Predict the structure.
Amino acid sequence: MCSFAGNNAELPSLPFHVVTKPSQLPVEFLEPSAAKKLVIGFDCEGVDLCRHGALCIMQVS
């Protein structure tokens, strides 16, 4: 059970950005460099997500 259950205090929100065009991405994503390593994490959510499932949302961090 979550420790915040039943607590009316608002949880802090994390910043997020909806990206719809490549120009909205940081230059490190668009022009990667071997000299500067970049770690990317992603999460996919969907309905019966497998080879033929429907992708609903993809989060990249």
